[in-house]
Amino acid sequence: MPTPPRISREVRLAALPDGLPGPEHFEVAETPLPAPGDGQALVRNRFFHVFAALRTLIGGGVNDAPFPPLRPGDTLFGAAVGEVVSAPEDSGLHPGDLVSHWLGWREYAAVDVTGCTPLDGSLPDPAAHLAPGRLAYTALTRDAEVRPGDTVFVSGGGGAVGSMAGQIARLLGAGRVIGSTGSPEKAGRLVSELGYDAAVVRGAGPIGEQLARVAPGGVDVLLDNVGGEQLRAAVAEARPGARFVLVGALSGQLSPHGSGAEAPVELDSYRLILRQVTIRGFGGADGPEGLSRWNERFGGWLRSGDVVFPHVRVRGIENAPRALHEVFHGRHIGTVIVEL
């Protein structure tokens, strides 16, 4: 391994925004190379995930959420893939090993060995370990129980989760897959590239009317990344016994008003009762054995071409604040990754 530099860079929250954060609310700061303590490995990050949920943490967080709020001066964090520089002798990690962990947004990180997941060659591209396909697969199979022939509606179909969910729903035997997105251009890509049969477009008229046209028989499954108007529309078009799983709340997270920590929505209770609609929150991923099974399945799909990994790579940590701004404003399709 080459000798690491004496200085590392990291992205910090510089100031709390009034509304959606912009690049000016962050700083790329220089800091001494982290010194790993007992039970820690020094990792040189190669990729990290830029994700919209950071908006909620910047806005003060949500009670019972698994991650703490971010305050001015705090370093951002998130999923990362990196290369081990050094590790304790009894850790099972060795210089050059690839690992995933949760201390992204910095060039070097001192990571608890217990927080490092060794990566093998199960995926053809190490960056694909940042794809939220496992989340989409678990939500569709365990929580929504997709069945052959189902009509599946994925709100936020062009996002990191949605861009995988449409493809996976198709592989699970869904009869019709519909996504929502923010522009006609993105809608075309959902249909031409990502397994969707049709798409509804935010701002192109009432979502409920659009959904009724493209799902004339109703909706059996909703994988909801958005909430708000799109959740209301899915309830209105729900078939008897429909199964809804709530994964995200972008309608609140990316609202230019408020803190991003709330996502209120008014639903028709009569419709839920009369059609016996089940709504549940995403139950989280399964354990390490489930991750191993998922990587084997996902790697096979990638190599066979049954699925693609839609993503955008932004080079250089100095461009990470801009990348986050672009995620907040829905500029890209798929997972946005900073490559170091």
Automatic annotation (TrEMBL):
What does the record list as coiled-coil region(s)? none
Q: Oxidoreductase among the record's keywords?
A: yes
Q: Which residues are in the Enoyl reductase (ER) domain? A: 19-338
Q: Which GO-annotated molecular functions does the record name?
A: 2-alkenal reductase [NAD(P)H] activity
Extract the SMART domains matched here.
Answer: PKS_ER
EC number of the protein = 1.3.1.74
Query: What are the entry keywords?
Result: Oxidoreductase
Which SUPFAM superfamilies does the protein's record reference? GroES-like, NAD(P)-binding Rossmann-fold domains
**Is the keyword DNA repair assigned to this protein?**
no
- Designated name of the protein: 2-alkenal reductase
